[in-house]
Design brief:
56% of the residues lie in helices and 0% in strands. It is built from 11 helices and no strands. It is elongated, with a radius of gyration of 26 Å. The N and C termini lie far apart (81 Å). The relative contact order is 0.07.
Length: 210
């Protein structure tokens, strides 16, 4: 009787020891986001081989992974470092330029705030909405006017940015331009854009934009 009891206790102790040394399973959320986390880390580290391999998997949606903390996508990451080559690469492999981060900022809005003209051009080529507004109603063109960035204003107007779309305060890019002192260079870009639209017979749409 005693020997059987000791053997049983020894067996239970062995099981307990095995359980203690087994590696803990990762939390469910870690498993769920592990592929996306690896993808974003590879983008941040400019690891082209890893990114290419992940994007080549059949049916993958990893190109549009959002960081679980910030909501940033790979396009946000490469826009922030002003990397036009990676912008082109990711969009060609399915990255959506109109996904906003947790602050409601899309890559084209980020590129505009950085004065990243080449990035703005590439994002528009990739399908970025040029008149997209942030939570304050600020469009990329309004942001460019605030910066007095003539080249960026010219680029956005040439790509169809609406100079008369209002932000939440009721002012448009044109309004902000007219409020600026020494605004002749900016005013010229607005005038040229107006003339170009008139010559092309472009009809302006009035009312709210959705």
């Amino acid at each position: 009787m005693g020997s059987r009891l000791f053997r049983k206790l020894g067996f239970l102790a062995a099981i307990a020891s095995a359980i203690l040394v087994m590696p803990a399973a990762p939390p469910a959320h870690a498993q769920l986001y592990s592929e996306g986390y690896q993808f974003l880390e590879a983008v941040r580290e400019r690891d082209g081989d890893t990114v290419t391999d992940m994007l080549s998997q059949p049916g993958t949606q990893v190109a549009n992974t959002r960081d679980i903390t910030t909501g940033e996508t790979g396009l946000h990451v490469v826009t922030a470092r002003r990397d036009a080559v990676w912008l082109q690469f990711l969009m060609r492999r399915g990255a959506n330029p109109n996904i906003a981060d947790n602050e409601g900022i899309t890559p084209i809005q980020l590129a505009t705030r950085l004065g990243f003209v080449e990035g703005v051009e590439e994002l528009i080529k990739g399908g970025a909405r040029v008149n997209i507004a942030d939570r304050q109603g600020e469009t990329p063109l309004i942001a460019a006017v605030h910066q007095r960035n003539v080249e960026l204003v010219r680029t956005l107007l040439a790509q169809g940015a609406d100079p008369d779309r209002n932000d939440n305060s009721g002012r448009s890019a044109r309004d902000y331009m007219e409020l600026l002192s020494s605004n002749s260079l900016l005013a010229r870009e607005f005038t040229l854009a107006d003339e170009s639209r008139a010559s092309e017979g472009t009809q302006r749409q009035y009312g709210p934009s959705f």
